[in-house]
Amino acid sequence: MSTEESQGSREVRVGQVCWLEIPVSDISRASKFYEGLFGWQCDLNPVPQAETPTPDCPFKGMYFFNKKDAVNGAFVVMSDDHRVVNFFEDRPRAMPVLPTIQVADIAETLKLAEKLGGKKQWPRTSCGPNAGFYAHVIDTEGNMIGMWAQN
């Protein structure tokens, strides 16, 4: 079997990231940050609409976001005792599972992230000859995310 197979009319790309869930505590703040930074569109109608989380379902709401064919996922509002943040102030160089988003310009995107309430965690850094540049930011919810650009 190849890594790209047809499943009905949809192409299956085995190994490709197909969904991204980001834990948040403030959906309004998080959606404004990601919409402003990456142009992601967020549906502010939660699914499911849980008033009180249960042990079987510890999230308060799931808010779908997308950007055309680039990314699909959800901001997930969790009860406090189930929320995991992937950045710790006392261990700033610890490496979590790190989603990295392609951007047009690292320096400009870092400035925009700070303007939107995020924090620069790692500056614009070369990946090596002809391999582009990367940086890390902490979003408004305490999650570390990466960004990459060719220039």
Describe the 3D structure:
The protein has 151 residues and is of the alpha+beta class. It has two domains: 1-82, no CATH class; 85-151, 2,3-Dihydroxybiphenyl 1,2-Dioxygenase, domain 1. It is 15% helix and 36% strand. The chain is built from two helices and ten strands; from the N terminus they run E-E-E-H-E-E-E-E-H-E-E-E. This is Glyoxalase/Bleomycin resistance-like N-terminal domain-containing protein. Residues 16-41 form the Glyoxalase/Bleomycin resistance-like N-terminal domain.
**Shape annotation:** globular
Q: How would you classify the helix and strand content by structural class?
A: alpha+beta
* Rg: 17 Å
User: Low-confidence spans: pLDDT under 50, at least 5 residues?
Assistant: none
The percent range for strand residues is 35-45%
Largest sheet: 4 strands, mixed
N to C succession of SSEs: EEEHEEEEHEEE
Helical segment count = 2
The pLDDT mean sits at: 85
Q: What is the count of structural domains? A: 2
Across the major sheet, the strand order is 3-6-5-4
Would you report the number of β strands? 10
Work out the helicity level.
10-25%
Query: How far apart lie the N and C ends?
Result: 36 Å
Protein name: Glyoxalase/Bleomycin resistance-like N-terminal domain-containing protein
Pfam family, one: Ble-like_N
Domain Glyoxalase/Bleomycin resistance-like N-terminal: 16-41
Layout: helices, strands, pairs:
Layout: E1 4-7, E2 10-13, E3 20-24, H1 27-38, E4 41-42, E5 59-67, E6 71-78, E7 100-102, H2 106-115, E8 119-126, E9 133-138, E10 144-149
Parallel strand pairs: 3-6, 7-10
Antiparallel strand pairs: 1-2, 4-5, 5-6, 8-9, 9-10
